[in-house]
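Hello,

Our lab assistant flagged a job as stuck in the queue for most of the afternoon. It eventually completed. Since we weren't sure the result was trustworthy after the delay, we are filing this so someone can double-check. Below is the sequence as submitted and the structure that was eventually returned. Let us know if re-running is recommended.
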Amino acid sequence: MNKTTENKIVFTVTQLSNILKTLVEEAFQEVWVEGEISNLKSYSSGHIYFILKDETSQIKGVVFRDVTKRIKFSLDNGLKVVCYGRIEYYNPRGEINLIVYDITPKGIGALQLAFEQLKKKLEKEGLFDVKRKKKIPLLPQRIAVITSPDGAAIRDILTVIRRRFANVEIILYPVKVQGETAKEEIAEGIRFLNEKFPYLDVLLIGRGGGSIEDLWAFNEEIVARAIADSKIPTISCVGHEIDYTIADYVADLRAPTPSAAAEIVVKNKEELVHKIENLKIRLIQNIKQVFKIYYSKLERLSNSRILLYPKIFYEEKVQKIIDLEKKIFVFFKHYLEMKNHKLNLLKEKLNLLSPKNVLLRGYAIVWHNGHVVNDINKLNLSDEVKVRLYNGEFTSVINRVIK
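-- returned structure --
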């Protein structure tokens, strides 16, 4: 044995690893660690691995699937967080890992961060776009309410409807409005009513007031997408006037409270009667004004010269026709004179070119065998030719050719 190890305790790697595991894990059964996430990796198994670091150091972090289901916001590189968990020493690789039981964003609440992340995502997809929102009917007759049957929302809505004496059909789809299963029930209610009751005029989706945790079901993505997919117009009425949820941004209309939603969809009969009376008065006033305008026009026309003395109008038109006839006659006369002058000029030119004028001066045209003779070489002795003079023809026989 080497002298340096004589009388010394020598550990195997496994023994030392086990000692380190016991020391570390017993010392840090509960720990809170603050840092920045980097090298984030998510796996299909649901587990998440990352490195938690600060300016000078880092430690590996692990979030197992059962914990990731409880995290409301999305983990991302660069996000500063506070992790609660325990320290694990992993013998096979000699690594120290932080096993995370809970994680919260640094400087902002987890729910608030989750709200901002989902809002940004859905806004980018166009789910908040005003152009895709449907109009709420003026006088809906068939209304469905998706809320808790025992909550303040349905009581407030029914109170408003009774007060306004509205003759409407109301369908209540009962759901939980908070808790783990609330988001699935609300989304399923929206889909169910669209499928089974497509004739509905409007859907009211909401609940009474509460904390951000109480209202969280209406900030879930599954609810937002169900509202966006609804063919029936939707009104979101969650909490109080100061409360805003993702459902408010996606719905076709946001009402500040459930009572306000009821007032929007169920018009007060007295208000409607008052509006109708006002419209009636305005209509009568407009009709009188139009009548007054046309009566004034009629009065001006009835006093006009053309209606008072129609014969003058006729005589003026007849005179215009006579003047027009004169102008046409003068025009065509001048036109014919010009054409006649041109024709005489052409006749004179034609006469100058006429063969008869040439014959008149003592010339003659000679034909032989039907052709004009213009070359003496084409004639022979004894040929018979026809000679044309100005006022007649004669035939002749060639008895001498002079070239």
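-- support follow-up --
The delay was a queue issue, not a problem with the job. The result is valid. The chain has a mean pLDDT of 86. Residues 310-353 form the longest helix (44 residues).
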